[in-house]
Amino acid sequence: MDGTLSQNDLSHVVEADRAHVWHHLIQHKPFETTDPRIIVEGKGMRVWDQKGKEHLDAVSGGVWTVNVGYGRESIAKAVYDQLLKLNYFAGSAGSIPGALFSEKLISKMPGMTRVYYCNSGSEANEKAFKMVRQIAHKRYGGKKHKILYRDRDYHGTTIACLSAGGQDERNAQYGPFNPGFVRVPHCLEYRAADQGAPTENYGEWAADQIEQVILREGPDTVGALCLEPVTAGGGVITPPQDYWDRVQEICRKYDILLHIDEVVCGVGRTGTWFGYQQYGVQPDMVTMAKGVASGYAAIACMVTTEDVFSMFKDNHEDPMNYFRDISTFGGCTAGPAAALENMRIIEDENLLENTTQMGDYMLGELHALADKHSVIGHVRGKGLFLGAELVEDRESRKPMAEKRVQKVVADCMAQGIIIGATNRSLPGYNNTLCFSPALIATKDDIDQIIASVDEALTREFA
């Protein structure tokens, strides 16, 4: 840390934060006696707090966002140059970076053709839900309006997104929720016994549970199925074999739009541009945010096929026959300018290849940790998106208590390594350590992360 601010200046910042900032996802009572953490600077994989302590960030900004790492001068310059030229105009008109980034993005998504800009993952998913509802009214007399979502998946913080949220502790105290959202079972094979599932062909069984829900609700009432390619905050759940093939088949059978939420997995996190590309799926709608510009500017996208887009212009003389929606800050030009440079960096530095290689290496190191620590019941992940589920007993697979899992996270933080874990989301199952280092991660970075977890597990469970 370069110490640009004096200690007195930093003390003032801490007090201003304590007095006025309402932080995300945190209880503020402890701040009456302890200082809030202020992150002052970041470079590469590391950040520094107000005390000058260095941390290796193994969760890309805390919420899976800073995919190309901190301190990228070329992205900052691209944003600066664009803001001087044109900072904003409403999305009813185009912009140079908006047009160019849409072209670049679509080149990475065969079968998709249209990009709708907005400013957060929650908002992108709201746009998709609205499109499904409007299509239902336009084509099906309003009947085919239901949206299926999966247990343990998460799609955002708004009331509609929470209505499609499969994490009951995140949803608690925010109801009543919007009607027309219907839950389907999760696909975590490690927890198949909890579902009463068979030990063989679990992937097909899990997908078939979706079909059972469709048949129960009535196929003529279901408009879309919204899924994460890899469940993120619900425990880093990679889909079982044959799952996605069967899901695609079911959606086509019943004329149901497949909406894939790539807010976490998108733009390289799994080692392909998008997580769904790992599984041979062709979606109708794809939403994305976080890694699109690596947090250097706010941007989210709702991407569709031409078939979906065409439904909103097929009767142009009808004054109601277009997508009557606006996202004010979807008209900001900083987002697509940053996203263009972010994508160039990923290409030029071969970060997809690095993500695959380092992800395989880290997965192997986590399996080695599991050989050493019996509290690790299951290791899973794809690319640099990995999880280790902690259990009290491997035979029974009883989930480790959330407080003990959080002690491991706190221990790593004290060592200067920031890791994540499922927390206050899944009743009884907040027991998975989560890792999502930036796509620039090296073996040395991963070795430091693994060593920190090893020490923390040893202290807590030895």
UniProtKB/TrEMBL annotation:
Cofactor requirement: pyridoxal 5'-phosphate
Gene3D superfamilies (alphabetical): Aspartate Aminotransferase, domain 1, Type I PLP-dependent aspartate aminotransferase-like (Major domain)
Pfam families, per database record: Aminotran_3 (PF00202)
PROSITE patterns: AA_TRANSFER_CLASS_3 (PS00600)
Signal peptide (from-to): none
The organism's place on the tree of life at top rank: Bacteria
Protein name per UniProt: Taurine-pyruvate aminotransferase
Species of origin: Marivita hallyeonensis
